[in-house]
Amino acid sequence: MTLTLVAGVLVVVGLIGIVLPMLPGPILVVAGIAVWAVPRHDRVGWIVLGLAVGLTLLGAVAKYLLPGRKLRAAGVPWWSLGAGVVLGIVGFFVIPVLGLLLGFMLGVFLAEFARLGSVEAAWPSTRHALSAAGWSILIELAAGLLATAAWIAGIILG
Q: At 48, is the secondary structure helix, strand, or coil?
């Protein structure tokens, strides 16, 4: 029972970490499920842990591929996204939690402003990048919630 509670705390903190990117959310979700699954030494535990790892990896891949495809279709160049990533990382340390998103938006906007020469022309790319970041979070959260559902099913079955 104690390991299940510890696992539950790790899973909840991991899900929060996905939405508020200050913690490695998916890793904490899988770690929580592992805390529950490994000591069990049974088929249910290993199946649930395997599902959780697989769903988390699938989410990690999808969170980059699907929004990236939308950004390419919208014509946002890679170097603008790179500027967003760099300023997002800086922003994360300057303004914890919100700085990542604010820095990303500012980086994309500044790169597109430099490329296109006007605020009106830079804003659509920035809006597409922000939308893609939102989709990325939602995809990762869906994967985390599916892994959590597998864990809850394992608790009920096991």
A: helix
DSSP state of 20: S
- Residue written as token pair 């906007």: 109
Domain that holds residue 14: 2-157
Residue 120 CB contacts under 8 Å (≥ 6 apart), including other chains: none
Instruction: From first to last of the 158 residues of the chain, give the pLDDT tens digit.
Output: 899 999 999 999 999 999 987 789 999 999 999 999 999 999 999 999 999 999 999 999 999 888 888 888 888 888 898 999 899 999 989 987 788 888 989 999 999 999 999 999 999 989 998 898 889 999 999 999 999 999 999 999 98
For residue 53, the 8-state DSSP code is H
pTM recorded for the entire structure? 0.83
Total domain count, the chain: 1
Q: Would you say 62 and 143 are in contact if contact means Cβ atoms under 8 Å apart?
A: yes
Q: Are residues 74 and 147 in contact, defined by beta-carbon separation less than 8 angstroms?
A: no
Collect all residues with Cβ–Cβ distance below 8 Å to 1 and sequence separation of at least 6.
Answer: none
- Residue pair 158/44 in contact by the 8 Å Cβ criterion: yes
CA 60 – CA 30 distance, rounded (Å): 13
